[in-house]
Amino acid sequence: MSQHLTWDPLMIQRYNRAGPRYTSYPTAVEFTPATSDACERSALAADSDKPLSLYFHIPFCRHVCYYCGCNKIVTKHRDRAEAYLAELYREIDLKAALVDRSRPVEQLHLGGGTPTYLSDDQLRQLMTYVRQRFSLQDNESSDFSIEIDPRELGPDTLKTLRDLGFNRVSFGVQDLNERVQIAVNRVQPEEMIEAVMRDARALGFRSINIDLIYGLPHQTRSTFAETLERIIDMRPDRLSIFNYAHLPERFMPQRRINSEDLPDAPEKLAIFGTAITRLDQAGYQYIGMDHFALPDDELAIAQQKGKLHRNFQGYTTHGNCDLIGFGVSSISQIGSSFFQNQTDLGNWGEQLNKGLLPTMRQVSSTTDDLIRKTVIMSLLCHLTVKFDDLNTLFAIDSRSYLSRSTEQLREMEKDGLVTVTSEAISVTNAGRLMVRQVCMAFDAYRDENETRRFSKAI
């Protein structure tokens, strides 16, 4: 696999259609309402020797970021966190009682919202509670991570997290330009970011990620390039550069952003083009789907060895795990089934108080789903999938089975973005930035989803 991207803005504009990010297949829009928690209980209690990945959703934020489309609760009343944790412990008890305690937890992630909205004592209580009910593995391969708003860190929070076993952190930065920060209501000086990076390094966190967003109000190629240079100087192990999707009709906070202040489509495309070119020069490897990593980072190494996976936490080295979600709106992936918790805080707590799992939606994968998932995830992670591997896994003639999908790739094949041979389907170096569009050809639900709102790839 070539580590250098081909930047062709005209080709990207031609294929830059809206589509899923494929953190799962079927995607979350295919989940159907659950009439009870019976299916999730059965999935959790099933005999399995798979290791576990645990996700905890902490929905609270002290400030609203205008670009945000996450499931969050903006409040300065920190006592609400205590009530939330009480319900979260109830959910932990219900699910832990169903899962074989001998199954090791290889991965754990706190997301949100703002997980560090919780105090240091609350973080200690939560992790103590989790360790009492699950078998967390503390070794070199374990991956315990947390998303951090640098503005919401106490003087000892990073040390507390390190003491609790967290070895990976992700800092939400988005942009260092003050005018952009003011426009999206997320003001955090560069000195603050530099300080938390220094502290995280000194404390020995194994991997540090920084999130940036392009397409925000007042951004230009020049201003974003300045931000990127300063971030490169900080040398995070990973970088996520997300495309801002302006959907004010869906996300109320975005209505506070003046659409006239947003970069137009050509400028937005140029911003991302400038970014990937500079990151390539700086030695970052393009993992895929907006993610970059240094060559010695675990993600880059896993991709080089053909062991990279993708799930609701994005690219991961622990795709062999069953994922169990806790907290409002969280999603679990257990075996070939997916379950989403109630997205309304009141409904989530009400079901827990009744002794029920807070299941709201679910889907069980068909054989066709599993075949197409294998194709999509292989392309997203490794840019190729071999027909013989599919034949062996599913006892099918995959060339014939997927013929209607591969036929949809003919135009992209003519443009040199993908190759379809008798042996494999492969994304070329020129097509790496359009891999999401390649995957859409194998999405059996795509026609049904064309009226639903997805973000564009770039």
List the helices and strands and how they pair.
Blueprint: H1 9-15, E1 32-33, H2 38-45, E2 52-58, E3 60-61, E4 73-74, H3 79-96, E5 104-112, H4 120-133, E6 135-136, E7 143-148, H5 157-163, E8 168-174, H6 178-183, H7 190-203, E9 207-214, H8 221-234, E10 238-243, H9 265-281, E11 285-288, E12 291-293, H10 298-304, E13 309-311, E14 314-316, E15 322-326, E16 331-334, E17 337-341, H11 345-353, E18 359-364, H12 367-382, E19 384-386, H13 387-394, H14 398-401, H15 403-407, H16 410-414, E20 418-420, E21 424-427, H17 435-440, H18 446-449
Parallel strand pairs: 2-5, 2-15, 3-4, 5-6, 5-7, 7-8, 8-9, 9-10
Antiparallel strand pairs: 1-18, 10-12, 11-12, 13-14, 16-17, 17-18, 19-21, 20-21
Helix pairs in contact: 3-4, 8-9
